[in-house]
Specification:
The chain has two domains: 230 residues, Beta Polymerase, domain 2, CATH 3.30.460.20; 62 residues, Magnesium transport protein CorA, transmembrane region (Methane Monooxygenase Hydroxylase, Chain G, domain 1, Up-down Bundle). By secondary structure, the chain is of the alpha+beta class. Helix 5 runs antiparallel to helix 7 and helix 6 packs parallel to helix 8. 27% of the residues are buried. The protein has a six-stranded mixed β-sheet. It is 59% helix and 13% strand. It catalyses: Mg(2+)(in) = Mg(2+)(out). One of its GO terms (cellular component) is plasma membrane.
Length: 297
């Protein structure tokens, strides 16, 4: 679906849910390279900046997760927006509705404003980058909750899978912000007259730092959780080992006197049975005393 959002000093054409023939018509009308326009049909295309003749071609990804239990891929977490612009037109191509386009048109393209297509494209990139702010706060809160649960003595939850999915989401978002940073740098080099680009660079740097910090927290937390789980396993093995040490000599004594030999003098003695029990008790006391001195108990 094609829609002209703005018609004035330049034309802003917005295309939603495009198909191949429609894009080829746009390429012919605005003198764009057909292969460049067909990049808009690839749903998993990463952010990039290209120059197509007089036009600038930009792809950015806005955070817009699908309704899945554990979204963690680029397509699951984000949607793509493609932009073509010159001094005379701006073309935006995307599959999902972007309501903030109307907001930009009302706020910056109303009478009295002198916005260029590059300025509008910069604002669109800003909205795309800013969409990663809320998930960063959510991920930070989730990490704090898991950290509290891990160190709570009463907690018995298994957090490996959740920590993995959080780290995957953080890695995808951080990767997209890094690629978007290169797009912003190219736009900045292409036109340094737009003061809004510096704010955009600062926002992207801030979010990248936030995701870097959260990623480190998740990695450290995962290592701590694995260490705590290993420590708990070691504690269980320690208890089992202690029990086995106590019962091994007793089992040895029982095994000797359980052999069915005809001539075993102790079996005929009246004090043989109590003597065996006394020997077992002495062995237990000796082992317990030794463990206490070694501070193993």
């Amino acid at each position: 679906m094609e829609k002209t959002i703005y018609q004035g000093k330049f034309t802003w054409l917005d295309v939603t849910q495009p198909h191949k023939i429609q894009l080829l018509d746009i390429a012919s009308k605005f003198n764009l390279h057909a292969y460049t326009v067909q990049d808009c049909l690839e749903p998993d295309h990463l952010p990039k900046f290209e120059i197509d003749g007089l036009a600038r071609f930009i792809i950015v990804r806005i955070y817009n997760p699908k309704d899945l239990e554990t979204p963690h891929s680029v397509q699951d977490l984000t949607s793509k927006i493609a932009l073509f612009y010159t001094d005379n037109y701006l073309i935006t191509i995307h599959r999902l509705p972007q309501p903030y386009f109307e907001e930009i048109e009302k706020k910056y393209l109303a009478p009295g404003h002198t916005m260029t297509p590059c300025d509008v494209a910069t604002h669109i990139i800003w909205h795309a980058v800013n969409s990663y702010l809320e998930p960063a706060q959510y991920l930070d809160d989730e990490v704090d909750k898991i950290e509290s649960a891990i160190f709570a003595r009463h907690s018995r939850g298994k957090f490996e899978e959740k920590l993995y999915h959080l780290r995957r989401m953080i890695s995808v978002n951080k990767k997209l912000l890094i690629l978007t940073e290169s797009v912003i740098d190219e736009v900045y080099r292409d036109t340094k007259s737009n003061p809004f680009i510096q704010d955009l660079k600062d926002l992207n740097l801030k979010l990248h730092s936030n995701y870097e910090h959260i990623h480190e927290d998740v990695s450290n937390l995962l290592n701590i959780y694995i260490s705590i789980s290993a420590h708990k396993t070691n504690e269980v093995m320690k208890v089992l080992t202690i029990f086995s040490v106590f019962f091994m000599p007793l089992t040895f004594i029982v095994g000797i006197y359980g052999m069915n030999f005809k001539y075993m003098p102790e079996l005929q003695l009246k004090w043989g049975y109590p003597a065996s029990l006394l020997l077992m008790l002495v062995i237990i006391v000796v082992i317990y005393t030794w463990f206490k001195r070694k501070k193993w108990l």
